Amino acid sequence: MPAENPPLNSPTFADTARAPSRVGTAEARALLRECFTQYKARLIDMARSSLEMSTDLFEWNSQISEGEVERFKARRGEWLERFAQTIDELYERRMGGQRRKGRRPDAESAGLGVKMLSDFDHAKQEALVNAMQHLHDYTRHDVTALDQRFAALVPERQASDIDNPFAPVYVLDAIGVTSRAIYPEPRIWRPLMERMLSDITPGVNKIYMALNRLLATHEVLPEINAALRARSELRPADDADLLPAFKELLAKAGMAGRAGTDAPIAPGTGGDRNVLPAATVVAALKALAHSKPAPAANRSPRSTPDNDAFPDLDPMLALGGTASTITLLSPLQRMELHAEVLREAERSLGAKPNATVPRNLVPYVREMLGPSIQHPAERTTLDVAALLFEYVSRDPSIPDELRPLLGRLQVPILKAALIDPAFFQNPRNPARHTLDLLAAATIGAADDPSYCAALQTLATEIIDEIGIRFEIDLTAFQDADNRLAAFIGDESRKTADAVITDIRRAAAAEQDESDRGRVRGLIRDRLAGMEVPAPIRSFVESTWADYLTLLRKEHGEHSVAASEALRTLDDLLWSVVAKERTGQKARLAKMIPTLVMSLRKGGKAVDLPDERAKRFLEDLYQLHIAAIKQHDAVAQPAPVAPVRPTLADAARPKRGAPSPGIAVASIHDFVSEMVAGTWLAFQSERGAVHARLVWTGALRMTYVFASRSGLSVYVYSPEHLADELISGNVSLVLEPVPLFDRAVSSALNALAERRSADAAERALVSGE
Q1: What is the pTM of this model?
Q2: Is residue 215 part of a domain?
Q3: What b-and-e string marks burial along 548-561, b requiring 16 or more CB atoms within 10 Å of the CB?
Q4: Residues near 323 by Cβ (< 8 Å), separated by ≥ 6?
Q5: Is residue 41 part of a domain?
C-alpha cells in the first residue's frame, strides 16, 4: 500500500540532486544503459527520417549550387554514422565522470572559421537559435523530471547543478558536432541543424517521456512528475529563498500586511451579511489573547529557590523580540478559536448569535498582533501563513466536515513558523508534517463513516494535546506525527486486506498476458505526447496491439517481424500529422503503398473483419488528405509544448465533462504516468466515491483503486480509465503531493495573478 505522505526523512525537490540513489550503483548503471540504448536508437531513427525528407532543404536557395546540394545528399549516410559515434562518445565521456563545460565539444576548431556573416547567414543563425530554444521550451517539463531521476541515480555531492547526458544540450551537441564535421560550410550545416531540430523536437520529448516512465517503473522517484505538476514555476529551486520570494511578490502585488484579506469568508457563504466585521474579529482575538492562559501540561511548579542551584531560566528568553508575539499566541492555541471568537463577540461586542466567523483567522491574528511584530521577516511569515491557510480553507480534497480540524492548527502552525526561522525551508519540520499528515488522512474520509469518526476523535485529541503542550519546542508535533502515522498505517493495512483478492487476480492476468502487457507499454510510449485521431488510437490499441503480441509470441521480442511492425506503427502515427514541406509530402506519398500493405497484413493476421478494415482504411485516407491540405489552407506554426496535466482545482466530478484540471489531449499520458496514491472520484448511484490508486503492476495492464478501508474497489485498464476521465464519469481529486507544497504553489500563483490583474487595470485606466 502506498504511504499517505512521504516520511519525515524523504528528500525534497531541492534535495533530489544530492540524494542517494534508490538503487545500487551497478543497478543504476545498468538502468541508465537501458535508457541510453532506447535514447540512441530512437534519436538515430528520427535523424534518419529527417535526412530522408531533406531533399527540399535547399530549394529556391541561390546561395547553394547544385553541386553542393548533390554532395550534401551523397554524404547523408556518413552523417548518420558519425552521429551514432558522437552520441556514444558524449554518453561515455559523461558516465566516465567528465561533466559538460557549457560549450559545444568542437568549439575551438569551429572558431577558426569565424568571419563576417551575410544577411543569409544572419537569418539562418537566428532561425537556428530559435529552433534550439524551441527544443528547450518544448521538452522542459519532462527534462526536469528526467534531470531529477538522473541525479538520484548518479548523485554528485560536489556539484550543485545536474549534468544529464540525455538533456537537450547533449542532443544539440551531437547534432552540431556531426553536422559541422561532415558539412564544414556554415551555409550547409546551419539550415540542416535548423531543419532537423524542427523535425525531431516532438519526438525528442516522446523519448524523455518514455525514459521517465521506464525509471518510474523501477521506483526511481516515481512521484516526481506529480510534484512537478503541483509546483509553481515561481517557487525557487532552493526553499531557503522561499520567504524572500514571497516578500518580493507581496510587495509587487501591494499585499504586504494584507495577504489573505481578499477572501476572508468561507467558500459557500458568498455575501453572507452575518459574517463578523473584521474589527469585531480582531477585538475578540485581542481580548482572548489577554485572557489568563491555562497552564501547560508539561510545565511543573517551580520549586523553592536554592541559592546553590543553577538558575531556572525562562525559555522565552531565547526568542528575543519574538517572545511578546509568542506570549500573545499561546492562549489562542489552547482554545477552539472559532467558537471562542464568536462567544466573545456575542458577550462583549454585541454580535448576533447566528453570526459567521471567517474560516481563515490568520489575517485577523496578524492585525491583532500589530505593534508586537517587530522584525520584517515576522511580518512576511504572517502574510505567508495567511495565504497558506487561505488555500487550506478552500482545498476541495478536504471534506467540509473535517476542515475545522485543520483550522484549529492555524495558530500552532503560525507560532511554529515564527519560532523556527527554517520553517519554510525545512520539509522535516514536525509542525509542517503534522499539517500534511492530517490533510492527507482526511481525503476520502467521508466515504467511510467509521474511519471518519475515528479520525475526528484522534485528530481532536492530538490538536488538544498540541495546544496544551506546545510552548517553544516541537516535541508535541513529533508525538502527533507518530500517532497520525500509526493511524494511517492501520487504515492502509485494512485496505490492503480488502483488495488483496483483486490484486492477486490482476497480477495473475498480467503474468499470463505478459507479452500483451509489454506491447501495450510500447504502444503507450509511441502515443505519448500526441493528439492522436480517434480512429488511429482505436486501431492501434486494439488491432495493432493484437498483431504485435502475436509477433512477440511467435518470433520473439527482438525479431525482425516485431521490429518492422513497430516501424509501421511509427510510420502510421507520423503519416497523419500535418505535412508542410515538399520533402514531407514526398516521403508520405512514397510511404503510403507500403504502409497500407503492412496494415492490411497485420489486420489479416489477427482476423480483423473486412468491414472494419475497410472502414479504418477509409478513415486513414481522409486523414492523409487532411494532413496534406491542412498546411495548404493555413500556415502551421511550430508545434507547441504539450499541455501537461495539472492538479484539479475543482475536484467535484461532473458527468459529461472531462476531468477538471487535466487537458483532454494529455489524459492518456496522465493515466500512463499515474502514481500510487493518486485520488480519483468515481461516480456511482450514491454519488461520487473517492478512491486512491493502490496497485498498477509492473506492466501497468490493470489499475486497482480503493476507497478508505477498502469499502469500495475499482479495477480498470489504463485505456478504459482514460476514456472514463474524458467522459467525466471519473475525475481527478488529488495527486500525492503534500498539502504544504500545494498551498505554497497556490499562494505564489495567486500573488502573481494579483500583480498581473493590478497591472492590467492600471494600463486600462491610463489608456482611458
Answers
A1: 0.84
A2: yes
A3: bbbbbeeeeeeeeb
A4: 316, 317
A5: yes
Q: Are 327 and 334 in contact (CB under 8 A)?
A: no
Q: Hey, what amino acid is at 737?
A: V
Confidence check: pLDDT of 484 > 50: yes
* pLDDT tens digits along 644-695: 444 333 333 334 444 444 444 589 999 999 999 999 999 988 889 999 999 9
Using the 3D structure, point to which of 229, 264, 288 is the last residue of a domain: 229
Whether 90 and 132 map to the same domain: the answer is yes
Is the Cβ–Cβ distance between 420 and 722 less than 8 Å?
Answer: no
Yes or no: say if 717 and 524 are a contact pair by the CB < 8 Å rule. no
* Burial group, residue 86, by CB count within 10 angstroms (0-12, 13-18, 19+): buried
Query: Among 340, 348, 483, which residue's Cα sits nearest to residue 410?
Result: 340
- The DSSP-derived string for 447-473 is G-HHHHHHHHHHHHHHHHHHHHH-SSS
Q: What is the CA radius of gyration of the chain?
A: 31
With contact defined as beta carbons under 8 Å apart, do 445 and 402 qualify?
yes
Residue-wise pLDDT tens digits, 499-545:
999 999 999 999 889 999 999 999 999 999 888 999 999 999 999 99
- Residue 343 counted as domain residue: no
Question: Does residue 194 share a domain with residue 136?
Answer: yes
The three cell numbers locating residue 326: 509568542
Q: How many domains does the chain have?
A: 3
Last residue of a domain, one of 587, 613, 633: 633
Residue 436, SS3 per DSSP: helix
Using DSSP, state whether 686 is helix, strand or coil: coil
CA distance 284 to 741: 32
Length of the chain: 768
Same domain, residue pair 166 and 85: yes
**8 A C-beta contact, residue 262 and residue 444:** no
For residue 733, give the DSSP letter: E
628 to each of 174, 564, 573, 576, 624, how far by Cα in Å? 31, 25, 14, 9, 6
Cα dist. 92→118, 214, 245, 323, 454 in Å?
A: 38, 21, 39, 58, 56
Helices (H) and strands (E) in the chain, counts: 28, 5
Same domain, 176 and 109: yes
The answer for residues whose C-beta is within 8 angstroms of residue 72's C-beta and 6 or more apart is 54, 57, 58, 183, 188, 192
Q: How many angstroms separate the CA atoms of 402 and 439, rounded?
A: 9
Do both 609 and 749 map to the same domain?
A: no
Residue 234 DSSP label? T
Beta bridge partners of 683: 688
Whether residues 622 and 752 share a domain: the answer is no
Does residue 178 sit in the same domain as residue 48?
A: yes
DSSP one-letter code for 710: G
The residue ranking higher by pLDDT, 273 or 324, is 324
Same-domain check for residues 157 and 50: yes
What confidence tier does 288 reach under pLDDT thresholds 50, 70, 90?
very high
Segments forming the whole domain that contains residue 599: 530-633
CB 87 within 8 A of CB 47: no
Cβ–Cβ < 8 Å for 748, 385:
no
